[in-house]
């Protein structure tokens, strides 16, 4: 990612029919599995799998392998997945609508966000759950420049022209709605993803990402000004770990092992963002055109503003407080998506991980 959420929304529209068919098939599969064996059989199978190792696994990333996934890349480099019992873990690069991959069973887990997964759960009845979140704060922002737009507050939006991608239009409209701004008070200009029109002064603001276009503006010396959605009425978790209901019930030990390795990788990355950014660029820079300047800034922004919170300080990385779950559900509702917290979130695996590995709670030492 660093345009992963935008990629999600566009891809979800294209994948809608496929996801619906897969979801229906999986619902039947889950029902048959529930009838096929007893809880004792399931527990015995999980114990045997943990004892023998988990073999190969895979995680679908929603964007390219850059600093957005620095924790996963560190975990792979340091052998944390191997330590957790896996022969290998394939980090599958996006862009991708992760929900379709998870539902199809081609990956064990996907990294997405509450809005995209909530949309599929609400509209398709997809048997999916979010079991944790790397980003406590979503990174969407209305980006402007000090010398162009200078949109630092909600009131500054009025009378401005904002470039908004088609895939982000629902979120933009929800943002205006929750902040009591009449759509007639702003000009919404359809755009693609290249922010050059903002940099050239053709628009006043840009629907952007804190760890992408804002960094580009900074590196160009354009003095970016951000109006984050999370701080202005639209909070929701992102970089969420999504799995099927079937896996949540029948592959708990495997998923817990993935979470343990993820926590260890992100702990290292947060402690040494320079190391994490260097590892990302050395591994994937030539493939994806990454630069150490941008990846380092992204790593620092994530570590300081997005990944950690009072909740993670108390209960560990990836945890999602009840309040933040409710806020995410409210954001979905503002975008016209009706789903409950119980339908979207299940933090029981993460609770078990920390109960069994209390040393992982302290990610600062």
Automatic annotation (TrEMBL):
Signal peptide residues on this chain, from the entry's feature table: 1-36
Catalytic activity of the protein: N(6)-(pyridoxal phosphate)-L-lysyl-[4-amino-5-hydroxymethyl-2-methylpyrimidine phosphate synthase] + L-histidyl-[4-amino-5-hydroxymethyl-2-methylpyrimidine phosphate synthase] + 2 Fe(3+) + 4 H2O = L-lysyl-[4-amino-5-hydroxymethyl-2-methylpyrimidine phosphate synthase] + (2S)-2-amino-5-hydroxy-4-oxopentanoyl-[4-amino-5-hydroxymethyl-2-methylpyrimidine phosphate synthase] + 4-amino-2-methyl-5-(phosphooxymethyl)pyrimidine + 3-oxopropanoate + 2 Fe(2+) + 2 H(+)
UniProt keyword list: Iron, Metal-binding, Pyridoxal phosphate, Signal, Thiamine biosynthesis, Transferase
Pathway(s) per entry: Cofactor biosynthesis; thiamine diphosphate biosynthesis
GO MF entry, a single one: transferase activity
Keyword Metal-binding included in the entry's annotation: yes
Pfam family for this entry, one: NMT1
GO biological process: thiamine biosynthetic process
Gene3D superfamilies given in the database record: Periplasmic binding protein-like II
Domain SsuA/THI5-like: residue ranges: 66-274
Keyword field contains Cell membrane: no
SUPFAM superfamilies assigned to the protein according to its UniProt record, in alphabetical order: Periplasmic binding protein-like II
The protein's assembly and partners: Homodimer.
Function as written in the Swiss-Prot or TrEMBL entry: Responsible for the formation of the pyrimidine heterocycle in the thiamine biosynthesis pathway. Catalyzes the formation of hydroxymethylpyrimidine phosphate (HMP-P) from histidine and pyridoxal phosphate (PLP). The protein uses PLP and the active site histidine to form HMP-P, generating an inactive enzyme. The enzyme can only undergo a single turnover, which suggests it is a suicide enzyme.
Entry's family note: Belongs to the NMT1/THI5 family.
PANTHER family: 4-AMINO-5-HYDROXYMETHYL-2-METHYLPYRIMIDINE PHOSPHATE SYNTHASE THI11-RELATED
Name of the molecule in the record: Thiamine pyrimidine synthase
